[in-house]
């Protein structure tokens, strides 16, 4: 650069570096803008953005006589505008020395001694908070690297974060990230030296950036779509026209699939209905049998299922509802479920009728399933980072933590590599133990160990504990990393986070208010209860006197002059014990969860991730297992009879009429007791083949079932094989 003499090409710090071969001229844009002896005397298309070449030459000659007060070299083209100040410097030197350059009006520059500073009231507390752009901690101090929002009391930023945000957002979209104020915010940031370019936002300049928003949602999401041409078929002005949810617009239904007679009728998806139900704004219907729940006004029934006019099923049949749920595909290209479709009313009257007795619980359960389905899609997206390069971990199941820690800390371990597990303490060493089942088993053991480890405290819903040795060995980071890797690589979720711990991770500890249930220490909980339930001022003061040392150590001593002061005192103790006390482990744990982008997705989709991190997987049901498996059959197999035996057996297992459980069946096929949050890869399948006994292929998640003449034969073979196989594995 002819003005500063540096070769650096850093547009964010020095502006665009431009070279004009015809003039033998290279210059940083900011060096040119801030030079004290030059003005834009030309049009925008003349010279360098209005700076004439002759003027630039004159400015270079003028600066060549001035010495930089920072680097002591010639060419200092920028001077401090403070009266009587004679300091001159190069633009990069000024940045290094924390000078302020105002990119507005006369483009004034202030040296390090005369630069403007932000004023803070003396009564404002000093501490740390989160930068609302990068979410890292920032010291609340009046220093060059930190800026405070003029419009929000608790909004603090790193200067570097703000500058990047301004360059990306431009003058039209740069505003306070907390309150969205634009005018007051921009004025203060310009005063403090933030450059806000006069351009559109970077995301507005991307070609076809909003192309997706121009597309309407065209998909039928009803559980049983009636359209033979598929869920994506849309024929306007007919019963196969797709109607979108009037609230969210991100779910749809064919008019016929929801028994709607015209497009003008309103329709809400189940997610929106569940939200309405929770808020109490959804109009409740009278309870009645789901078999007759078809509404007279044409809108959909309670469970959003169609009610076609079909003969009713005899009440004696117990299992046929399951015939509706599996995805049956045949090798001879028959359409799915072509011979298994039964009236929706049949299924509803049998197994789902108990849900009508508690509609709100049904909606909550449905909402939880939807959230878990959303998490599954997110985790599948994150799994795209995993490559085919493998890393093998040698695991001792009897010492799961130390062997896992050693594996995760080995030099060649990378979260983006495919993980293979070798159990070193197996009796049969000749077996290649690198299947998906081994990985499931490893992550299950690891999550169980973490739940019961000293890193967490509490009964069922757990918070982080304070273990100084674990902090010293950075074990909280490793725990967060292991959980993130388990989620993305198809392992189970922890399921034991308390709501307080989850909120601290997602929203930041400063935005969370803990409850008494979060205190695991019995003595501390008893102390808090005595303060909380003190009914006179004297008893409150006596309690405080008795636990004086504890309150002093916690930094919670405060004058108590009225009984109502106890509420603030209880709140202080809870915040100290549950949050401030473990702030170091929490930050380390958060850093670990950032592995593979998991924490970022948690912060973007908190409700969805809460469903797997704060709740255990729901108990398996016959319907869940049936939906999980896709049924394949060859042309020489009676698929209806085979599927009937399979689904009838699931119903018997669920009702306790079998020596095995649904978890045993899942373990037999996949090696896992539960369905992982990201789902199984490959998806589980059922095949009916000519074999004597059922077999489970855990590499393919495939269950091969024998073809039998009677249901009793089928049931006996299933129970004999599954029971003895799992018994042998346990031994």
Automatic annotation (TrEMBL):
<dbReference type="InterPro" id="IPR035983">
    <property type="entry name" value="Hect_E3_ubiquitin_ligase"/>
</dbReference>
<dbReference type="InterPro" id="IPR013083">
    <property type="entry name" value="Znf_RING/FYVE/PHD"/>
</dbReference>
<dbReference type="InterPro" id="IPR011011">
    <property type="entry name" value="Znf_FYVE_PHD"/>
</dbReference>
<dbReference type="Pfam" id="PF26054">
    <property type="entry name" value="PHD_G2E3"/>
</dbReference>
<protein>
    <submittedName>
        <fullName>G2/M phase-specific E3 ubiquitin-protein ligase</fullName>
    </submittedName>
</protein>
<dbReference type="GO" id="GO:0008270">
    <property type="term" value="F:zinc ion binding"/>
</dbReference>
<dbReference type="InterPro" id="IPR059102">
    <property type="entry name" value="PHD_PHF7/G2E3-like"/>
</dbReference>
<comment type="pathway">
    <text>Protein modification; protein ubiquitination.</text>
</comment>
<keyword id="KW-0479">Metal-binding</keyword>
<keyword id="KW-0539">Nucleus</keyword>
<dbReference type="InterPro" id="IPR001965">
    <property type="entry name" value="Znf_PHD"/>
</dbReference>
<dbReference type="Pfam" id="PF00632">
    <property type="entry name" value="HECT"/>
</dbReference>
<keyword id="KW-0862">Zinc</keyword>
<dbReference type="InterPro" id="IPR034732">
    <property type="entry name" value="EPHD"/>
</dbReference>
<dbReference type="InterPro" id="IPR000569">
    <property type="entry name" value="HECT_dom"/>
</dbReference>
<dbReference type="GO" id="GO:0004842">
    <property type="term" value="F:ubiquitin-protein transferase activity"/>
</dbReference>
<dbReference type="InterPro" id="IPR042013">
    <property type="entry name" value="PHF7/G2E3_ePHD"/>
</dbReference>
<feature type="domain" description="PHD-type">
    <location>
        <begin position="1"/>
        <end position="115"/>
    </location>
</feature>
<keyword id="KW-0863">Zinc-finger</keyword>
<dbReference type="Pfam" id="PF13771">
    <property type="entry name" value="zf-HC5HC2H"/>
</dbReference>
<keyword id="KW-0808">Transferase</keyword>
<keyword id="KW-0833">Ubl conjugation pathway</keyword>
<dbReference type="InterPro" id="IPR051188">
    <property type="entry name" value="PHD-type_Zinc_Finger"/>
</dbReference>
<dbReference type="GO" id="GO:0005634">
    <property type="term" value="C:nucleus"/>
</dbReference>
């Amino acid at each position: 650069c002819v003005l500063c003499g540096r070769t650096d090409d850093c547009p964010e710090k020095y502006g665009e570096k431009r070279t004009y071969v015809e003039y033998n001229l290279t210059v940083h844009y900011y060096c040119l803008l801030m030079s004290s002896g030059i003005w834009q005397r030309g049009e925008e298309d003349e010279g360098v953005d209005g700076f004439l070449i002759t003027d630039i030459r004159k400015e270079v000659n003028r600066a060549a006589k001035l010495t930089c007060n920072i680097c002591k070299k010639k060419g200092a083209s920028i001077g401090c505008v403070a009266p009587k100040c004679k300091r001159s410097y190069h633009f990069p030197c000024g940045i290094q020395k924390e000078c302020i350059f105002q990119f507005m009006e006369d483009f004034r520059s202030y040296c390090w001694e005369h630069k403007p500073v932000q004023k803070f009231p003396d009564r404002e507390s000093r501490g740390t908070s989160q930068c609302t752009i990068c979410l890292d901690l920032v010291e609340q101090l009046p220093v060059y690297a930190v800026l405070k929002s003029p419009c929000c009391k608790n909004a603090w930023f790193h200067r570097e974060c703000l500058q990047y945000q301004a360059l990306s957002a431009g003058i039209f979209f740069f505003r306070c990230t907390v309150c969205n104020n634009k005018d007051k915010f921009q004025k203060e940031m310009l005063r403090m030296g933030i450059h806000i370019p006069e351009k559109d936002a970077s995301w507005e300049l991307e070609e076809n950036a909003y192309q997706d928003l121009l597309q309407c949602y065209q998909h039928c999401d009803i559980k049983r779509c009636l359209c033979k041409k598929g869920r994506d078929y849309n024929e306007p002005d007919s019963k196969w026209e797709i109607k979108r949810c009037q609230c969210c617009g991100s779910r749809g239904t064919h008019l016929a699939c929801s028994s709607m007679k015209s497009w003008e009728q309103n329709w809400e998806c189940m997610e929106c209905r569940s939200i309405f139900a929770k808020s109490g704004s959804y109009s409740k219907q009278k309870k009645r049998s789901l078999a007759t729940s078809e509404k007279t006004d044409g809108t959909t029934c309670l469970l959003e299922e169609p009610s076609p006019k079909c003969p009713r099923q005899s009440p004696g049949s117990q299992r046929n509802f399951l015939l509706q749920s599996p995805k049956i595909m045949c090798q001879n290209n028959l359409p799915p479920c072509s011979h298994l479709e039964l009236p929706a009313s049949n299924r509803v009257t049998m197994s789902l009728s108990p849900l009508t007795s508690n509609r709100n619980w049904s909606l909550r359960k449905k909402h939880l399933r939807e959230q878990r389905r959303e998490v599954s899609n997110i985790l599948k997206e994150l799994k795209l980072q995993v490559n085919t390069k493998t890393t093998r971990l040698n695991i001792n199941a009897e010492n799961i933590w130390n062997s896992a820690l050693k594996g995760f800390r080995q030099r060649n371990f990378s979260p983006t590599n495919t993980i293979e597990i070798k159990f070193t303490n197996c009796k049969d060493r000749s077996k290649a133990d690198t299947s998906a089942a081994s990985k499931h088993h490893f992550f299950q053991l690891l999550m169980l160990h973490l739940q019961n480890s000293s890193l967490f405290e509490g009964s069922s819903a757990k918070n982080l504990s304070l273990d100084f040795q674990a902090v010293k060995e950075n074990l909280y980071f490793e725990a967060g990393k292991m959980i993130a890797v388990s989620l993305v690589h198809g392992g189970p979720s922890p399921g034991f986070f308390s709501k307080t711990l989850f909120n601290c991770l997602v929203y930041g500890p400063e935005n969370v208010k803990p409850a008494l249930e979060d205190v695991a220490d019995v003595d501390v909980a008893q102390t808090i209860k005595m303060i909380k339930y003190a009914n006179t001022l004297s008893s409150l003061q006596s309690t405080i006197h008795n636990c004086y040392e504890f309150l002093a150590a916690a930094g919670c001593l405060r004058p108590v002059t009225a009984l109502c002061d106890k509420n603030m005192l209880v709140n202080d103790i809870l915040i100290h014990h549950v949050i401030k006390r473990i702030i170091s482990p929490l930050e380390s744990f958060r850093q670990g969860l950032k592995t593979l982008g998991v924490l970022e997705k948690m912060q973007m989709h908190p409700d969805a991730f809460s469903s797997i991190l704060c709740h255990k997987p729901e108990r398996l049901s016959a319907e869940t297992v049936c939906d999980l498996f896709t049924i394949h059959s060859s042309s020489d197999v009676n698929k209806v009879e085979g599927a009937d035996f399979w689904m009838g057996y699931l119903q018997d297992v669920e009702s306790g009429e079998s020596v095995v459980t649904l978890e045993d069946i899942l373990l037999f096929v996949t090696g896992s007791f539960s369905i992982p949050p990201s789902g199984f890869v490959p998806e589980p399948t059922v095949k009916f083949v000519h074999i004597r006994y059922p077999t489970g292929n855990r590499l393919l998640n495939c269950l091969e079932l024998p073809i039998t003449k009677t249901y009793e034969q089928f049931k006996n073979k299933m129970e004999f094989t599954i029971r003895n196989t799992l018994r042998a594995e346990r031994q």
